[in-house]
Specification:
The structure holds two protein chains of two kinds. Chain A is an alpha/beta fold. Chain A has nine helices and 14 strands. Chain A is globular. The two termini of chain A are 22 Å apart. Chain B is of the alpha/beta class. The chains are: A alpha/beta, B alpha/beta.
Chain lengths: 291, 275
């Protein structure tokens, strides 16, 4: 078991013939993801790697293949349109990898997704992986192993770091989800925490947040009130100076809000385990899974 | 958002007297509707003539906000004249960096002389770089891992000299540029590479380090931590060129902090302190 994706996930890749899209499609296929269609306007009728049919539109792809999930590898200026197109075609999970999507574009996409009943993950995210079953996005498959720890993070490489350490320590994962570092994202920590709480195969959750916004504080409140499963948290950016955007568009401390100290205090108040450095996840999770 | 108690310290107003602020979410698919602008304006004025004038200004502000790809557009203060006119006295706009491709005219307004030269150089090389006060120069891939690396430097008793994210794509050129920027900073006493290869191929990073140090030999010690995609190839490239590297993040950070502390004060740095 897992959250959001599993063996029944059938994927359409938007931007399948692009540089990133083609590279990662191959990786996903090697991992065992059921890639059933690709979309590149003007290349409809061709095949990717002689196997995956390419369509001009997502609507055509879904009509022909019944794809239930879409992943987006198109340039930032066209990414919002790709998200709208996927949801309009009836896809229920839309994973947007693209970095650099204008925030104002996302203000139009976000309500549309809700109206269509589609879940958006990202943008500016590494996607997700349910080890041994399916991967959608760019998380390297070989650092993961099947198991019962749920992982949710705003970061890419920091997630890989922690997942790799969990795998080496024998702590497998149910699903690893990267929600992305942008100020407006389709899926937030609480969405993932609720799904992990409801997933019978997940026994504990590792959560990696960072400075900026109040998502982590809201998540801590949710954990305190609604979750029975143990959650261990980490906040990146404890040494970040205020007022500077630390790479991720959402990672900025404004005024006195969004600091690491404030978020760590919220974690502690919620009774969560707090990892002071990435390496501490392993022991904190082990202690809590045993209980 | 409007407030009759505007001016400075709006955060304080929000915390102490939230009833003096009216927030209205706008659905950007429809835009700011006239009735919404009127509602905001009635929060500020009683005289309907002033309300209409303020509502018009708000709709113009919204139009300017959307048209220019802003993340903030603010009029402060909005004043009334003795003749009863409503006038915007000052304004501030912040443009979303991700919109600049659509607005070359705005991008051209960037005043690079107002920024740290190293940050300008980094942006032109497609690197995200922020100068800090410490002496451990950090080169990392990914924003989250870069922040976590800075935090770990501090955890082990050191101070990071910078935030530097070389991004996801692997390109030896980026590493060369990153090293140029870091080594140009006289306060850097040790350099720390922390690379987790996912999309980034660690052999590309290793090649970048070798190329860069051949062009400009290092004068400060370097600690390299890399793991992930093509790690074995990367380790061999580094070893063949006289570098050592490890795959353990905590050990690498500890070592970099120790080297920075052990580093002798360079003559130029001593002179700079006016000792």
């Amino acid at each position: 078991m897992s959250i959001f994706i599993d063996k029944n996930t059938t994927l359409v890749v938007q931007g399948i013939t692009g540089r990133d899209g083609s590279f990662h499609t191959k990786q996903m296929m090697e991992y065992g993801t059921k890639v059933v269609a690709g979309v590149t306007p003007g290349k409809g009728g061709q095949k990717f790697e002689n196997t995956v049919p390419i369509f001009n539109t997502v609507a055509d792809a879904v009509a022909a293949t019944g794809a239930n999930t879409a992943v987006i590898y198109v340039p930032p200026m066209y990414a919002a349109d790709a998200m709208l197109e996927a949801a309009d075609a009836g896809v229920k999970l839309v994973v947007a990898i693209t970095e650099g999507v204008p925030v104002l574009d996302m203000t139009r996409v976000y309500p549309f997704m809700k109206e269509k009943g589609a879940r958006l993950l990202g943008p500016n995210c590494p996607g997700l992986i349910s080890p041994g079953a399916s991967k959608v996005g760019i998380i390297p498959g070989r650092i993961c192993t099947p198991g019962t720890v749920g992982v949710v993070s705003r970061s890419g490489t920091l997630t890989y770091e922690v997942v790799y350490q969990l795998t080496q320590a024998g702590l497998g994962q149910s699903t690893c989800v990267g929600i992305g570092g942008d100020p407006i994202n389709g899926t937030n920590f609480i969405d993932c925490l609720a799904a992990f709480e409801a997933d019978p195969n997940t026994t504990a959750v590792a959560m990696m947040g960072e400075i900026g916004g109040t998502d982590e504080q809201d998540a801590a409140e949710f954990i305190k009130k609604k979750m029975k499963k143990p959650v261990v948290g980490f906040i990146a950016g404890q040494t970040a100076p205020p007022g500077r955007r630390m790479g991720h568009a959402g990672a900025i401390i404004s005024g006195s809000a969004g600091t690491a100290a404030e978020k760590i205090a919220a974690f502690e108040a919620a009774g969560m385990g707090v990892a002071r450095r990435p390496l501490e996840f392993v022991q904190l999770l082990r202690d809590r899974i045993k209980q | 958002m409007v407030s009759p108690a505007g001016g400075i310290d709006i955060e304080e107003v929000a915390a102490k007297t939230p009833e003096k602020i009216l927030k209205l979410p706008i659905d950007t698919r429809y835009g700011l509707q006239p009735y919404e602008a009127m509602r905001l304006a009635f929060f500020l004025f009683d005289d309907v003539r002033k309300v209409r004038a303020a509502a018009k200004i708000m709709q113009q502000l919204y139009t300017a906000f959307m048209k220019n790809g802003c993340s903030l557009a603010e009029i402060n203060p909005l004043v009334t004249t003795p003749a009863g006119d409503v006038v915007a006295l000052d304004a501030k706009m912040v443009i979303d960096d991700n919109e600049l491709d659509r607005h070359p005219d705005i991008a051209a307004l960037r005043d690079e002389s107002a920024e740290a030269p190293s940050e300008v150089q980094a942006r032109n090389a497609n690197l995200t770089f922020i100068k800090l006060d410490g002496d451990v120069g950090c080169v990392v891939n990914g924003a989250g891992l870069a922040m976590a690396t800075m935090d770990l430097v501090k955890y082990y008793g050191g101070e990071p000299a910078n935030f530097l994210d070389i991004g996801g794509s692997s390109n030896p050129e980026k590493v060369v540029n990153a090293l140029k920027i870091i080594t140009a900073d006289p306060s850097v006493k040790a350099i720390l590479f922390n690379i987790f290869g996912g999309i980034t191929r660690t052999d590309d990073v290793a090649n970048g380090i070798v190329t860069a140090t051949k062009q400009n030999p290092l004068t400060v010690p370097i600690v390299i931590r890399l793991t992930g995609t093509n790690e074995e190839i990367a380790m061999k490239i580094l070893k063949d060129n006289g570098f050592s590297a490890s795959s353990d993040m905590d050990e690498a950070v500890k070592q970099a902090v120790a080297l920075a502390k052990a580093s002798p004060v360079t003559p130029s740095a001593a002179g700079g302190r006016g000792a």
